[in-house]
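Entry 14. Structure prediction run on the chain below.
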Amino acid sequence: MTIPFNRPFVVGKEFEYIQQAIAQSWLSGNGTFTKRCQTDLAARIGCDRALLTHSCTAALEMAAILAEIQPGDEVIMPSYTFVSTANAFVLRGGVPVFVDIRPETLNIDETLIEAAITPRTKAIVPVHYAGVGCEMNAILAIAQQHNLLVIEDAAQGFMASYQNRPLGSMGHLATLSFHETKNVISGEGGALLINDPRLTARAEIIWEKGTNRSQFFRGQVDKYTWVDIGSSYLPSEINAAFLWAQLEFAETITQTRLTLWQQYHQALADLENVGKLRRPRIPSDRQHNAHMYYILLSDLETRTALIQYLQQQGINSVFHYIPLHSAPAGKKFSRTSGELYYTDYLSERLLRLPLFPALTDLQVEQVINAIDQFFHS
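Output returned:
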């Protein structure tokens, strides 16, 4: 039995909705399905506006424009994140300033943020790793005290919450991903969430290639024209139709993943108790979405050996990010604030296990048995 790390999950209505989109003869975006998805996301999360994008990367780039990042402006974020988190701001001339992560959650350590603030600091970008919320109360308080924007990178955080508030609902702006490796998918896709109403009108213009086209179609202006910078950030209606089918089943998908996550968690407790690995830790005031199940091993050599052993058993497991501060572009475009001890230490020990809705109980058992055999052989 070969077990992939991920298998894109189809709920069954995607093809029907794609056919409807084709029949409507409107495929270029911002049609019926785009509007349905945006309305649904805004209602679920409680934001002022949700705008679908062709990727979370695109949503982050829009956020950087809305934050008015200028050359030399600094943006505080973790180094343990995907490259798009930093790239979006570097493209505007911004300087990512990396701070260390918490060992419990692998999220940005909020206690280190203030020491990283300088007169050039413009924004804080908390990344909700593995769908577990950052310490948002503290981050928002720091941002308010220093008049900074907060942009939540909630790429992994859809259907998760912090103190009963949906991830993506607390910062001035937030971004989501619907990439095929995420919980709810559209192949490639994302969304920009606007929680600060002062940014909504401009966000729509940037989204529409820098034009006031949407205002024109609503009858708010008598003609539309180029009024600001922007780009082609809309997904096609085919992507939106696929996403709409997924959104209808978002609760079911999330519950299925949570059940699988819990199977791993219970079965690996004994190995944690004898010090062979560490399981994820979820703070009691957070509801995660089972975006991933990872284990932390004793060292890089053990992780490498376990990956190879699982591969021999037909099981595909993967490690995650190479910290951005250690990457060639990270050294060129960014700086660090303080020592990034846990970022370096944990990034070499983390291993992600297969987790997708179609994973069977038998497959989960096979993964668990293989890990157990590795440590007892």
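The first strand starts at residue 49 and ends at 53.
Filed with the rest of this week's runs.
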